[in-house]
Design goal:
Number of strands: 27
CATH topology of one domain: Rossmann fold
CATH class of one domain: Alpha Beta
Distance between the termini: 36 Å
Strand order of the largest sheet: 2-1-11-10-12-13-14-15-16
Structural class: alpha/beta
Helix content: 25-40%
Number of helices: 15
Radius of gyration: 23 Å
Strand content: 25-35%
Largest sheet: 9 strands, mixed
Shape: globular
């Protein structure tokens, strides 16, 4: 039997050890660890009063806010499973995740009233468990008669630790985090208390109380919830958080709060540079910058370095959190790499038969370790395919070099064969991102009478003006082999993106009439 433990203990212990330290500063409103724990306890008592019990799912359809944090740790303390919902979900997408998770409660901000109202009769949420929060939008609709006002209830409950009717074990599920769905229907990755605890132990530096961590990632995203919030609380740091990302505000917060650690994804860093605000602030407090990924152009990282922001990149998945890391200094020696495996992750490359491949050979990246998800919620077949004898099959193709550094080739589903040769779109996309007029690019394999398949590049330019196929091919000259050149180039006004900056190739294919043969 697994050890009795829950992630809520972490907050309780910090409240005992550093009660008056600032835990979270949300929209310039600070909350100490003592206050955060007490409000979390009130929410936990409130949740228990509604009749939900250990193992029940509660869905959170909220922008970043204090209440999101209370709900996360309250769920942890009483054994509920939290289901953070992507704020871009509407209609059938929202309905799918609520029904797939079997959520009994739904917490939603007033600005999302229309989205919830349209599906409330087709989801399984208990009729008395639609919980309305006003949020910061003063123009949002009032609380409907079929919902309950959150703030009318939770603050009436005691601040003492909740008494548990059932013990919570380390292997019990804590959250269901849905994948982005960039290659098909989203899958709910189940994250346990134990796995979450090891995420805290995987921070990029020896953090300590007093360190200020700045992130504007959405809390519904695993990077916002587990890599940012949970790490901050677990290490006693102060997290500076905003309702949503704004590049100018992000820069100003570096100076205002003397941020020591800053975390932003590649798309965010690009917007931060474009804003020009970095040049107007004092950046001397920053000692660590996190972000990037396998498709982060080196040119972008070099631009940030010129401004004193040395961003380390890495590789990870919702199914296993952060798996590798590469410092900016290492990046100079291994510019195409995503780094070596981090603590609590072991990784290697396998062929289709499950054999380990030597350095230099491309195969599937697989991983083991205590951070690997428990499985996909209500999807036993997908789970059995993803986790084989405890080994996570990432679905990503890559290779490692003789020194143990990993390199991403592409998603297995994105690879195509042209004239008998494997082509990995990510390789060409990464080169094209260094083109000064390309904002976003996605290459997809399409049918071709001569070669079987060839590449089609969808491009969104920085200035809205077209870029010719000839210019694209000239830019690729001497950078990649000719058989990898895309045969077709199509300009589009706006690339379909997830809330965290990933290009949705399925949506791209559907909108532009590309065959979906390879998509699950």
């Amino acid at each position: 039997m697994s050890q009795v433990w829950n992630v809520g203990y972490i907050l309780r212990q910090q409240a005992n050890m550093i009660p008056n330290n600032k835990a979270v500063i949300f929209e310039d409103e600070p909350v100490t660890f003592k206050e955060l724990n007490e409000r979390t306890n009130q929410v936990a008592h409130y949740l228990m009063s509604t009749g939900v019990k250990k193992g029940d799912r509660i869905a959170v359809y909220l922008q970043n806010c204090h209440e999101f944090i209370y709900l996360f740790f309250a769920a942890a303390k009483i054994g509920l499973i939290i289901v953070p919902l992507n704020l871009r979900l509407v209609g059938r997408e929202l309905e799918y995740q609520l029904n797939n998770s079997g959520s009994r409660m739904l917490f939603f901000h007033a600005k999302f009233f229309d989205n919830v109202n349209k599906i409330k009769d087709s989801i399984q949420v208990d009729k008395d468990k639609y919980i309305w929060l006003p949020g910061r939008d003063t123009d949002a609709p009032p609380c409907p008669d079929w919902a309950v006002r959150f703030h009318d209830h939770f603050d009436k409950f005691p601040t003492t630790e909740p008494a548990l009717k059932e013990q919570i074990f380390m292997d019990d599920p804590l959250g269901i985090i849905y994948t982005s769905g960039v290659t098909g229907a989203p899958k709910g990755a189940v994250v346990s208390h134990s796995q979450s605890y090891f995420k805290i132990l995987s921070l990029y530096l020896s953090a300590a109380p007093g360190i200020v961590f700045l992130s504007q990632l959405p809390l519904f995203h695993s990077g916002g919830l587990f890599i940012s919030l949970l790490q901050c609380i677990g290490r006693g740091m102060t997290m500076v958080l905003r309702e949503k990302f704004d590049p100018v505000q992000f820069c100003n917060d570096i100076e205002k709060y003397k941020a020591n650690v800053v975390f932003a994804l590649t798309t965010m860093w690009r917007l931060i540079l474009d804003s020009g605000q970095l040049d107007k602030i004092d950046r001397s407090s920053v000692i660590m910058s996190i972000g990037g990924g396998e498709r982060t152009p080196k040119a972008l990282l070099d631009q940030l370095k010129e401004k004193g922001i040395k961003v380390g990149v890495g590789y990870g998945q919702t199914e296993n959190s952060a798996m590798t890391h590469l410092t900016y200094e290492e990046l100079q020696l291994k510019p195409a790499s995503v780094g070596k495996p981090r603590e609590w992750s072991d990784m290697w490359i396998e062929d289709a038969e499950g054999n380990r491949l030597p350095p230099g050979e491309i195969g599937e990246i697989v991983a083991i370790g205590p951070k690997v998800m428990s499985g996909y919620w209500n999807m036993p077949e997908a789970t059995a395919k993803a986790i084989v004898n405890g080994v996570l099959h990432t679905g990503d193709l890559g290779y490692m070099d003789a020194e143990g550094y990993f390199y991403i080739a592409d998603r297995a589903k994105d690879m195509y064969r042209s004239g008998g040769e494997n082509v990995y779109p990510a390789e060409i996309e990464k080169v094209l991102y260094d083109h000064p007029r390309i904002k976003h690019v996605a290459i997809i394999g399409v049918a071709d009478d001569k070669w079987g398949e060839t590449g089609k590049a969808f491009i969104e330019s920085t200035d809205g003006k077209p870029i010719s196929k000839e210019e694209i091919l000239e830019f690729l000259k001497d950078k990649v082999s000719r058989y990898k050149y895309p045969s077709h180039v199509e300009m589009i006004e706006e690339m379909p993106m997830t809330a965290t900056g990933k290009i949705m190739k399925v949506a791209l294919k559907q909108k532009h009439g590309v065959r979906l043969d390879k998509v699950d």
